[in-house]
Amino acid sequence: MSARRLVSLTESWFRKSQRRLPWRDGYDPYRVWVSEVMLQQTRMEVVLGYYERFMARFPTIAKLARASVDDVTAAWSGLGYYRRARMLRDGAIDVMTRFGGVIPATVGELMTIAGIGRYTAGAIASIAHGLHEPIVDGNVARIVARLFAIEAPLGSPALMREAWHRAEVMVESSKSPRDFNQGLMELGALICTPRRPLCGQCPLRRQCAAFVTGRVDELPRPKAKPATRELRIPLYLVIDRDGRVLMRRESGLLMRGMFHLPHGDTTLLTGTPLRIGVSAALGTFRHTVTNRRITFEVFAVARRPRTLSSEYAWIVPDALGTIPHPSYVRKALRLAGIGK
Predict the structure, then answer these.
(1) Rounded to whole angstroms, how far apart are CA atoms 78 and 54?
(2) Which residues contact residue 267 at a Cβ distance below 8 angstroms, ignoring those fewer than 6 apart?
(3) How confident is the model at residue 278, as a pLDDT?
(4) Cβ contacts of residue 34 below 8 Å, gap of 6+?
(5) Could you give the percent of the chain with pLDDT greater than 90?
(6) What is the C-alpha to C-alpha distance for residues 19 and 194, in angstroms, rounded to an integer?
(7) N or C end of the chain, less CB within 10 A?
(8) Active site residue 36
(9) pLDDT, tens digit, 9 for 90 and up, residues 137-188
(10) φ, ψ dihedrals at 281, nearest 5°
(11) How many C-beta atoms lie closer than 10 Å to residue 290's C-beta?
(12) Coil, helix or strand for 86?
């Protein structure tokens, strides 16, 4: 199987079939960087709305570097995996202080920036700067496993090592690393999907070992899934005379710095659960955080607590857009008929 043939077919298909995405307008390195961070573990259709709002709020790397952690995580609220937002801001500060505000091109320099690993460095170098650098994410690993009939399970070190090696060989023979790398990711997102791939529309099907041998549904081999945890967590809605809602700032690693409604469980959040008298149950809703499937029970509280530690604050519901918070806070408030 010729690497050059695979690459040529991928580049040609991408040029004809690529989606119109906002960061593909001029391939500015900062815009590419933000898009890649947002797309980690998040679906494209979710990212698009957040991306436009985030870029309107932080149109330049200098503005992002000057922003507070709260401002950045507030703009990220609802996207999940909030460590990405904090690391993106840290990286922007790094670029301003060490590179004079100019995002470097080489993978070696990029990987010295806070929050940038091998994949993101390769994406910026190849997509924004046109360098012959490989990138491997879940989409690319899946395509490579099928193209070359690699037996290692999805997500395994063995598959990732082989995928990086194959990607490096292929990108070296590309005329446009930008088109090739994006083409592989686009094929993985639209054609070579995990289930029911559209092999009849794939430009690489005649070069694909899995397709030729009828093993598309077998490859890549699945990885073991972590056990799903079912949780039930009470949330307390405490409102003062001015219509403000009592919220607590999280200090744990999972959602550090985010504002939550007071809770009665420490499985998901840190801190001491708030002990208050409950007046009425408002209802329940479901929410998923990583491998946790949570049923939140929302309770209205008639009497405010007499004393509160400094981690608590009274928040105006209409100001939530400026305050970092997980998406389930809005779900709880909507259930109670508060906010939008």
Answers:
(1) 12
(2) 231, 233
(3) 67
(4) 23, 51, 54, 55, 88
(5) 68
(6) 20
(7) C
(8) yes
(9) 999 999 999 999 999 999 899 999 999 999 999 999 999 999 999 999 999 9
(10) -90, 125
(11) 12
(12) helix
Q: Would you tell me the crossing angle of helices 69-76 and 44-57 to the nearest 10 degrees?
A: 140
Sign of torsion, CA 203 209 212 213?
A: negative
Task: Please report the domains of the chain, with CATH numbers, ordered by start residue.
Answer: 3-212 (1.10.340.30), 229-335 (3.90.79.10)
DSSP class of residue 195?
Answer: S
DSSP string, 16-76: HH----GGGSS--HHHHHHHHHHHTTS-HHHHHHHHHHHHHHS-SHHHHHHS-HHHHHHHH
d(CA 316, CA 334): 14
Pairwise CA distance, residues 296 & 241, whole Å: 25
Model pLDDT, residue 254: 64
Task: Note whether 261 and 296 are within 8 A (CB).
Answer: no
pLDDT given at position 265: 67
Residues 236-250: what's their mean pLDDT? 89
Catalytic residue among 11, 36, 162, 250, which?
36
Confidence of residue 266 (pLDDT cuts 50, 70, 90): low
Q: Which residues pair with 229 in a beta bridge?
A: 292
Mean pLDDT of 48-61: 96
Mean pLDDT of 317-325: 88
